[in-house]
Design brief:
This protein has 1069 residues and is mostly beta strands. The chain has eight domains: 307 residues, no CATH class; 91 residues, Immunoglobulin-like (Sandwich); 91 residues, Immunoglobulin-like (Sandwich), CATH 2.60.40.1220; 70 residues, no CATH class; 91 residues, Immunoglobulin-like; 114 residues, Immunoglobulin-like; 113 residues, Immunoglobulin-like (Sandwich), CATH 2.60.40; 118 residues, Sandwich (Immunoglobulin-like). It has 15 helices and 76 strands. The strands form 21 sheets. A five-stranded mixed β-sheet has the order 51-52-48-47-54, with helices on one face. Strands 60-61-57-56-66 form a five-stranded mixed β-sheet, with no helix packed on it. Helix 3 packs parallel to helix 6, helix 3 packs parallel to helix 9 and helix 7 runs parallel beside helix 8.
Length: 1069
């Protein structure tokens, strides 16, 4: 007997035995079996499991010769949310006919080889739209089905005889909108059959020839191919369907059901099931077919394997179905259930508007081994992200990279129910954007009466919409219609439809059925139904006794989320261990107006003895701030203390910032609006959590880089005439010179020829020989120089457009191109100071930034002014720091005041050639001839760190006084006065400017050997002088360190160290 004949006989035997009654199967207690007396009835059982009603149904042949028909129809079933039913080729099965009526079908696709008589019988049912797809030719059927798909994501290519291999991907194709194409007998596929961007081959090279760019899933047999598919595709392994890989039709029928949950269909024989590593310990097993097709021994073997995995170390995998949630799958039980539910234990990074951002996880929902994480904001479609799971969850840190967010599915309505006297809840398949502004997208009627919508409230991260109307409902059945204006975060509209919901009044008061997120500072109570707040008075909500009430009166917008109420006790902390939370009677009500009785809920709060840790540190260039994310909420009084942070740039210079704490995040807002780029060093410590546990000092490297989208130029400067022109395309930062968004790509530039009213692409024109274009880069890749030869430009009428390009860091310009840019002669191009970008960085140095590049600097062009007049400050040198930034150094004997003011008047950096100086000719210019603008005056910003005042001509060996004369210069004004009668030293420190108040605990004397007396700061520096008292006697040369000194402009110096320069004669009080 040959092998093919043997397989066929086995299949026939299996089918005959499958006709035995479905009762009496002895499977594992944690499995479900879907089986009928034959393949037609098994398909009906599958339909019952997934569909109570269905607008669309797909009908295919149950005959062995035409099983491919149902296979290629799986993607269409997924798109239409339709069950696949099977019937003999030449007659409509009576039970199938009854099911079409029961489902309330409006449309039936008759796929493939089903006869005209079947089509006629279906049409005769009445009220149905019947669509015939394909014929007895399976390839023609596959093409006809593919034509019905809306923008398929890709194609699975299967061999002419590879039906079993293709079964492995049928549910995936249905879930993710992939078409299925069939090769010819030689393994070749027509190019026109390949749809979408991604092509997969299923099966070996003996069946399907290689296709350029396609990935192949293939194994030694159908079961190993099945395992390879599980490994290579993104299934949801919460649930697995087990079907016989020989009888085939059961697995085909279950594909659209499995697609509902993006589940995997595991193929087996009567004696073998391949080990699939991706199946999880908690995977629910649904068996398709009778015990002969899938014996109980095979089922038990699979479930035993899954139970054994529960004892193993957990394995985390992640998948996404929308742009604001991640579904985390867990294999194994070695994890902490409480830690798993804590949103603080997850760190996520993803792309928002093309920029990589840390995004908070704001909600965690756990359902067996599936964890749904909801993000604070949606990410970009077709982008990737990274999730880090803290070691507190499973004893080690897990990092899940390359998480793909690709949403191409239309959201649907899952359920509609009446939850109150005037409220309907609509539950969606995924979160919906902007629900609060969607009142006009819902129509609620009972008979001819239409209820006007009062408001729409998003619940549970906008998975649900609570729709409140102005009138109360009467008993009866509501019709609720949803419109296409409802969209998910990818912009896809909800599938429109009308749904029914019965009004059944609830007369039972709300009660608490659970709680979550219990800490000493808060707890979230879970009720058996949605509630509202009747009395927001905080005294109605307390723990232990009535004096321990919540922080503030309740607010339904921040404290209530459907059936979840969060109570906050940051002032009156909940006790560690067991405790009780009380809610006074009548404080809450359900949406039927039933008020609560007195509630007393026992909760358990874990003891917190763990110090906070730093989860992430990153720079946000848009907000110009460093964001520090902690493992838990931190105490504001310690988190906002600047002394607890030291930030240095790449050159070791202190960086000025202000601190804002918010929950588990701290923001260091940089005072320099354009900080130098590079890797900064951040040290932080002594920051406490809400339980008082303190973070020890830690150090991080922070990359400061620009991720702000680059701006297009305001205009294009030109020089030339006739048909030869030079164009200057000037960006404000270095641009990308390679890759798809390179500014060197001529295709990115178009001229608008006003005379012909057409756009001329420079690359096309150059390639076709219409005119010649040469491109060069200048000014550190900030300027593109375009030489045009052979085009007669009309600068007054023509325009210029730039396509989407990127800066050197890879950040794209916003939108897909610039607006129409005008031409301006280069003679009109002047270069001026950037507002706010002229700053004194020391008493001898000024940095200035320009709005264009200066390639030649004339020192005589600049001067320091006060009140519009030249002041007595001499410029010694000017250094070009960057193409648009200079450093001005003053002469040593003309230092700037510490606060950059003269008698309260501001100082300015000015350029010559203004009023009264018109004859002066500016010499500073760019390579293209653009001149520095004359007559400028830009206020000098104070970025000078606080310094100790120094004096010249002093003798530190003598007591300090104004009359002290000597030969030493630059002597700091720091002196000690000792009073022997009380054994105290008064230390005086004079600063170059007033500073913010300095506290005693900021001051260290002789490495702590001497202590500042209690109440020892007599003058705190706010008038420019610090005086403090130290126990014992201090001497010249003794060391003092002040942890931080901040001036009134926000500049600060950390760890300011200095010595006592003078000793004043010992005096007695």
């Amino acid at each position: 007997m040959n092998k093919s004949k043997g397989i066929a006989i086995l299949a026939i035997i299996a089918m005959l035995l499958a006709m035995l009654p479905a009762a009496g199967f002895a499977d594992s207690t944690d499995t479900v079996r879907l089986a009928g007396a034959n393949r037609v009835e098994t398909a009906l059982k599958i339909c019952d499991e997934g569909w109570k009603s269905a607008t669309t149904v797909i009908l295919a042949s149950s005959d062995e010769a035409h099983l491919f028909d149902a296979l290629v129809a799986a993607p269409l079933a997924g798109q239409e949310d339709a069950p696949i039913l099977v019937t003999p080729k030449n007659a409509l099965n009576s039970k199938v006919k009854a099911k079409l009526k029961e489902l309330g079908a409006k449309k039936v696709y008759i796929v493939g080889a089903l006869s005209e008589s079947v089509r006629n019988e279906v049409t005769a049912i009445g009220g149905l739209t019947v669509v015939k797809l394909g014929s007895a030719d399976k390839r023609a059927t596959a093409r006809a089905v593919a034509a019905e798909l809306d923008n398929p994501a890709g194609t699975f290519v299967v061999g002419d005889g590879g039906l079993a291999d293709a079964l492995s991907v049928a549910s995936y194709a249905a879930a993710y909108n992939y078409s299925i194409a069939i090769t010819d007998a030689n393994g070749n596929i027509a190019k026109s059959d390949l749809r979408g961007d991604t092509i997969y081959i299923v099966g070996g090279k003996a069946r399907v020839n290689d296709i350029t760019g396609a990935k192949r899933f293939g194994g030694a047999d159908r079961y190993k191919t099945n395992a390879e598919v599980a490994k290579g595709l993104n299934f949801n392994f919460d649930q697995v369907y087990l079907a016989n890989g020989l009888t085939l039709v059961d697995a085909l029928s279950v594909a659209p059901l499995a697609a509902k949950n993006r589940a995997f269909v595991q193929l087996c024989s009567t004696s073998y099931v391949a080990p699939v590593d991706e199946l999880k310990a908690g995977s629910k097993v649904t068996v398709v077919g009778g015990t002969v097709a899938v014996p109980s021994a095979i089922v038990n073997k699979l479930t035993s394997t899954l139970k054994a995995r529960a004892q193993q170390k957990p394995d985390f995998t992640v998948q996404t179905e929308n742009l604001i949630q991640l579904d985390l799958q867990i294999n194994g039980k070695g994890y902490d259930e409480e830690a798993l539910r804590d949103a603080h234990n997850y760190d996520f990074k993803g792309y928002v508007n093309g920029n990589l951002r840390s995004i908070d996880v704001v909600d965690v929902e756990v359902n067996n081994n599936k964890v749904t994480l909801t993000l604070e904001r949606p990410v970009d479609n077709q982008s990737e992200g990274t999730l880090v799971i803290d070691a507190s969850v499973a004893d080690e840190k897990y990092t899940l990279k390359d998480i793909m967010f690709f949403d191409n599915k239309m959201p649907t309505v899952k359920e509609v129910e009446v939850i109150g006297k005037n409220t309907v809840k609509v539950t969606f398949s995924e979160p919906i954007a902007d629900l609060a502004n969607m009142k006009n997208q819902f129509l609620i009627k009972m008979g001819t009466k239409e209820y006007r919508v009062r408001q729409v409230t998003g619940v549970h991260n906008n998975l649900e919409a609570n729709i409140t109307v102005y009138d109360s409902f009467k008993n009866g059945t509501l019709s609720v219609s949803v419109d296409r204006g409802l969209k998910d975060y990818a912009g896809f509209s909800v599938r429109i439809g009308t749904f029914e919901a019965k009004v059944v009044e609830d007369k039972t008061p709300p009660k608490v059925v659970g709680y979550k997120n219990a800490t000493r500072q808060q707890v979230t109570l879970i009720f058996d139904q949605d509630i509202r707040i009747e009395d927001e008075d905080r005294r109605n909500y307390y723990h232990t006794n009535p004096s321990n009430y919540i922080d503030e009166d309740l607010d339904e917008y921040t404290d209530l989320d459907g059936n979840e109420l969060t109570l906050r006790f940051s002032r009156n902390n909940l006790p560690e261990g067991s405790g009780y939370v009380h809610i006074a009677a009548g404080s809450l009500a359900d949406l039927w107006d039933n008020e609560n009785k007195l509630l007393k809920v026992q909760i358990k709060v874990a003891i917190d003895e763990i110090a906070p840790t730093v989860k992430n540190v990153e720079y946000d260039s848009v907000a110009n701030e460093i964001i520090i994310t902690f493992s838990e909420e931190v105490a504001e009084n310690s988190a906002e203390r600047p002394l607890n942070y030291v930030l240095e740039d790449e050159k070791g210079r202190d960086v000025s910032f202000r601190v804002v704490a918010d929950g588990k995040k701290v923001y260091l807002k940089l005072r320099d609006s354009a900080p130098s780029q590079g890797t900064y060093t951040l040290e932080l410590g002594n920051i406490e959590d809400l339980a008082g546990n303190k973070l020890k000092k830690v150090t991080f490297k922070v990359k400061i880089e620009d991720t702000t989208p680059p701006d297009y130029p305001e205009a294009i400067y030109y020089e030339g005439s006739n048909t030869r022109y030079t164009l200057y395309v000037e960006f404000s930062e270095p641009m990308a010179t390679s890759g798809s968004y390179s500014v060197r790509d001529l295709a990115k530039y178009e001229l608008y020829d006003a005379s012909s009213r057409r756009y001329i692409n420079l690359k096309t024109a150059n390639s076709n020989g219409d005119f010649k274009v040469d491109l060069a880069m200048a000014n550190g890749n900030k300027t593109v120089i375009l030489e045009l030869n052979g085009f007669r430009l009309d600068p007054d009428e023509d325009g210029f457009v730039i396509g989407r390009v990127a800066d050197a860091g890879g950040t794209f310009t916003q939108g897909f191109g610039s607006s129409m840019l005008e031409f301006r002669p280069v003679e009109e191009r002047t270069i001026s100071f950037v507002a706010g970008k002229v700053a004194a960085v020391s008493t001898l140095e000024i940095e200035a930034e320009f709005d264009g590049d200066l390639d030649y600097i004339d020192v005589d062009d600049f001067y320091i002014a006060v009140d519009g007049e030249k002041a007595d400050y001499d410029i010694a040198t000017i250094e070009i720091l960057d193409s648009n930034k200079i450093l001005i150094t003053l002469a040593d004997d003309t230092k700037l005041p510490g606060d950059v003011r003269e008698k309260s008047k501001r100082l300015y950096l000015a350029t010559r050639g203004g009023a009264g100086d018109k004859s002066y000719k500016i010499g500073s210019e760019s390579a293209s001839g653009a001149k520095l603008e004359a007559g400028l005056a830009e206020p000098i910003v104070d970025r000078i760190k606080p310094e100790i005042l120094t004096e010249n001509g002093k003798d530190p060996s003598k007591p300090y006084s104004s009359s002290n004369k000597g030969k030493k210069n630059n002597v700091p004004v720091v002196y000690a006065t000792y009073f022997s009668g009380v054994d105290l030293t008064f230390v005086t420190v004079a600063f170059a400017e007033p500073v913010r108040a300095i506290e005693a605990d900021y001051i260290t004397v002789n490495d702590g050997y001497n202590e500042v007396s209690d109440g020892g700061v007599l003058d705190d520096g706010t008038k420019g002088v610090l005086i403090f008292v130290v126990d014992g006697r201090l001497y010249q040369g003794d060391e003092i360190e002040i942890a931080m000194v901040r001036d009134l402009a926000g500049n600060f110096a950390t760890r300011l160290s200095f010595e006592i320069e003078y000793e004043v004669e010992v005096e007695r009080l």
